[in-house]
Amino acid sequence: MPVTEPAASVTLEAVELRVLHLPLVSPFTTSFGTETVREVIVVRARTTDGEGWGEIVTQHEPSYSSEYTHGAWDVAQRFLIPALLEARTFAPEDVAGILEPVIGHRMVKGGLELAVLDAALRAQGRPLGQYLGAVRDRVPSGVSVGIQHDPAALVDAVGAYLAEGYVRIKIKIKPGRDVADTAAVRDAFGGIPLQVDANSAYTLADIDTLAELDRFDLLLIEQPLQEDDLVDHATLARRLRTPVCLDESIVSLKAARDALALGSASVVNIKAGRVGGYLEGVRIHDLCRDAGVPVWCGGMLETGIGRAANAALAALPGFTLPGDISASSRFYTRDIVTEPAVLEDGQVRVPTGPGLGVEIDPVALDEATVERVEVRT
Ligand code: OSB
Ligand code: MG
Questions:
Q1: How far is the CA of 70 from the centre of ligand 2 (A)?
Q2: 207-217 tens-digit pLDDT
Q3: Do 311 and 139 contact (CB within 8 A), yes or no?
Q4: I need a labelling partner for 55 at 20 to 30 A (CA). Which of 172, 191, 277, 278 fits?
């Protein structure tokens, strides 16, 4: 639960969904593929006291997780939004319970919850960061760097981000693009804070290759094995000196509890979408903090909506490692908010206005919209 006062109830009248296509400034390649356009769903909750915005962070294809844009689009309209409209008057803290009869679809639930939370907090004039329990007004900014054509191109890309001031570099790896890529970055930039993300691309058969990464003094290796490989991650973690961090596997508070009990991870990446919302993210933060396990805020190439909320979450005290909270310009030439997140001395500011603390740019939003629907009772 939020460490502060509960938010006010809202009376929900309608929910608007939009599929957006936002061109990326450069292609983003991970072990599961390359994206050149971010396809994402934006949510507008219309209440009797005003509106609120959320973001459903699914991607075009079910590669990072089983969720994907048009599955989200369908389940939201067919089941999840009708359940909220039926409940009609409820507090943001009630959303997860109202949606619980629907199994899975956590990114969709998280996006809907955020829109309701934003509406409730805006109506109360309360900033999201304060509500979640933020203890900082800025958060350190790390950057996630996709797989490049070759290690030399990777060194060029990393050098440009370091020159911009990013305080931590994460490079994506996959079989065949791991040890040499990591060595190239270490050789070029010495002891910078560096970590790698495999996005589930390995199996325990690769244990010797993964152990070779130990010599690079990485902050962590993120999600080397598959989402449901908690036991194998524990086996791997016992063998590696590099701390194992889980991303895809941590789908809920329960999964986080299991992972810690099994020794599958010594660091946790918290992504609100993946776990079903910012409130579940806070609960995982609290669990890890009590267990002495460091957490950091992951990203899903968020628009200005999710980026503002991520900054608020990352300002909680247990977020002791820099998150994937880069400036909007790392991904987009034109964001859909009027004041996109910028990098200032390697940090991003936690918005202080009511709710998300960012305003939508209606023209940019319309230009990015490829599908729109409104669901009402
Ligand atoms: O694994 O952290 C990941 C983007 C999409 C899907 C999965 C991941 C990522 C990133 C980008 O690494 C993080 C960001 O938004 O900056
Ligand atoms: Mg990851």
A1: 22
A2: 999 999 999 99
A3: yes
A4: 172
